[in-house]
Amino acid sequence: MTTVIDASLNEFVDACRRTIGAQYVSTDSQQNAAYLTDWRRRFTGAACAVMKPGSTEEVAAIVRLCNQFKVPVVPQGGNTGLVLGSIPDASGSAVVLSLTRLNKIRSVDPVNNTMTVESGCILQDIQQAAAAADRLFPLSLASEGSCTIGGNLSANAGGTAVLRYGNARELCLGLEVVTPQGDVWNGLRGLRKDNTGYDLRDLYIGAEGTLGIITGAVLKLFPQPKAGRTAMLALRSADDALRLLTLAQGKCHATLTGFELMSEYCLTLVTKHFPQIRMPFKEAHAQYVLLELSDSESEEHANMLLENLVGDALQQDIVQDAIVATSITQSKALWLVREHIPTAQAAEGKNIKHDIALPVSVIGDFIRHTDQLIQKTFAGARMVTFGHLGDGNLHYNIAHPEHQTEDSFLMQQASINRIVHDSVHSFGGSISAEHGIGVLKREEILRYKSEIEMNLMRTIKYALDPLNLMNPGKVI
């Protein structure tokens, strides 16, 4: 699909200024720089303007102008994505539509356990608004202080609590969307059952802005847990982590909220670059699990569940050592280790990232098999493996060998991606779990999705966005 620009961009920009106010339309390169460069600073695109509408109606008005002038539009939230999904290409023909002014929490319904929000709301603000109503919105990400709920939904974000609460798709009941033609679909229904036709909500969630622009959402809320308990456990292997997961699910049931796997090298990086964070254990172990329980009964019940779990895991020789947090401060200290892995990895230098999903049962075999393949071809490569083991999502990242420069190692990225992605496919997995496709994996998915599946996706795209104005060049 190609987009033909057949009208004056200056005329288009002037029309947008009249529509939403000149102060919200910027063509200044310095002011726009933050909107044109991705979070990891790997790529800088160009745009004819960056626009900040203040309402759904203004978003729709701009999209109608984009249709009139055949101008592509790139929706953007907090710009925290990792696959270039919210960055325009280098042509300068597109407009970046920043949705950060759509930041109102429209309503909270504690009886229905729902909250209606605009898409530019910061995730952390939504969490806090839920807490103020004695409710929980469980989506939790490292970027929650800056990412927006619209971006979370567009990428179907996961996070650390998917095991219990599901990803962004499971946490959303309804949407408000501006279509590629500039119409507004109001699907803001707080219903858990609505079997009246095609599920349009799920069509837009995870579409990365290629089918329409999410401007509002009805989110699921949950009762606040009565107690939370955290433990970090040391293990010999990822296989033992899977044994621990099975034991924890059997003993703790729905109270098991988080189950994070971290390799020994991950903790080494954290303590190296953040010396204020101490290694939790005196001795190093091959793998670690950070486990979180959220109990709806009482602190005593949560303590009993965790103590029984840890005791049984030690007795069955699944776990080699364990640290159980006895206070909120200790719990936060353990989570700091997990949360600092990405920043420690960045401090160590450039690396090759993979956001993958696998059937939980094969994760141990995948890590062992793929590590061997990588080491056979790239001896000394450092494996930074961590992620949400409970839902099968691994961040399988690879840092350059100490004897090799970063740049020379990064030149091998295509070969490394092929090893990893082919291995993921052979184990029945997906090359994107929660980061999306964007630009970086657009060509990769052609190797692993059938032509039938790709044609179905193209058919939907053509039907809804025949002019290819919605985030062109992303996903397909």
TrEMBL record:
Q: Which domain of life is it from?
A: Bacteria
Q: Which Pfam families match?
A: FAD-oxidase_C, FAD_binding_4
InterPro entries xref list: FAD-bd_oxidored_4_C (IPR004113), FAD-bd_PCMH (IPR016166), FAD-bd_PCMH-like_sf (IPR036318), FAD-bd_PCMH_sub1 (IPR016167), FAD-bd_PCMH_sub2 (IPR016169), FAD-linked_Oxase-like_C (IPR016164), FAD-oxidored/transferase_4 (IPR051264), Oxid_FAD_bind_N (IPR006094)
Alphabetic keyword roster: FAD, Flavoprotein
**Family, per the entry?**
Belongs to the FAD-binding oxidoreductase/transferase type 4 family.
UniProt cross-references to PANTHER family, sorted A to Z: BLL6224 PROTEIN, D-2-HYDROXYGLUTARATE DEHYDROGENASE, MITOCHONDRIAL
| Name under which the protein is recorded | FAD-binding oxidoreductase
What is the species listed in this Swiss-Prot or TrEMBL entry?
Herminiimonas aquatilis
